[in-house]
Amino acid sequence: MSEAMLSKVRKLLAKAEDPACTPAESAAFTTKATELIARYGVDRALLAARDPATDPVGDRVVEVLAPYARDKAGLLVAVADPLRCRCVRRREGSGFAMHLFGFASDLERVDLLFTSLLVQAAHGLAGTAVPAGEHPAAFRRSWLAGFARVVGERLRAAEAGAVARTGAATGVALVLADRSHRVASRLSEVYPRLRTAAPRRLAGSGFTAGAVAGRRADLGGRGVADGVGPERGIAG
Q1: 218/116 Cα distance (integer angstroms)
Q2: What is the C-alpha separation between 143 and 224, in angstroms, rounded?
Q3: Which tens digits make up the pLDDT trace of 45-70?
Q4: Among 26, 31, 81, 82, which residue has the fewest nearby CB atoms (within 10 Å)?
């Protein structure tokens, strides 16, 4: 990511991470930052189509720590999937090691967004009261699920918008499809026997409140698995 664009995105994310940020301000930051990071992804993909050395396929491991490690891992997947990265979740102590596969520019975008969204989610949870009589952990897990769901939807829409604005004449849709295929192939080479986990069931009532927070979050931007036996992965 160019230093100029990176600086803009970081400033927008920093504002969104401020607990004093109002919903209206956050919405304004979100619109601009999301456009920047989505446009960057398309630009880098088109550049790499002409010169593959500028954006190689790679991987990295992101540690996701307790508390709520599984829920944080779900947020990482919600960010990675729309940005054409793939994840495998491996149990590591009380948390997870998330093995991400993607092109260098997309992994960079995922890292930047996920780091900021963890902070934004923590502020959102801290400012949301647990309903009387409800187990706090159950409420917070469902809150995080709602937050992640909406973040993923918004990122997917932003990526589609960036593609549409670029235009069919550039062949960007074919370029992105090829990139997704190459990432999937790389993951299959490393994890040839992935299996998908069963859908998770959450009992808390915080999903709607988390979804509302997800709509406000500044974005400046699925099988998951334990690491026992064959890995189960999220194919995004």
Answers
A1: 8
A2: 19
A3: 999 999 999 999 999 999 999 999 99
A4: 31
Q: What is the pLDDT of residues 166-221, one digit of tens each?
A: 887 688 999 999 999 999 999 999 999 887 766 666 666 667 777 777 776 756 54
Pair of tokens at residue 75: 């947020």
Asked whether 66 and 95 are in contact (CB, 8 A), the reply is yes
- The one-letter amino acid at 1: M
For residue 92 the two structure tokens come to 């590591």
Positive or negative, the Cα torsion across 70, 75, 81, 87? negative
- CA 93 to CA 70: how far, in whole Å? 12
- 136 prior amide bond cis, ω within 30: no
Please give the sequence-ordered ranges of beta strands (E in DSSP) within 6-67, or none if there are none: 57-64
Q: Is the pTM of this model over 0.85?
A: no
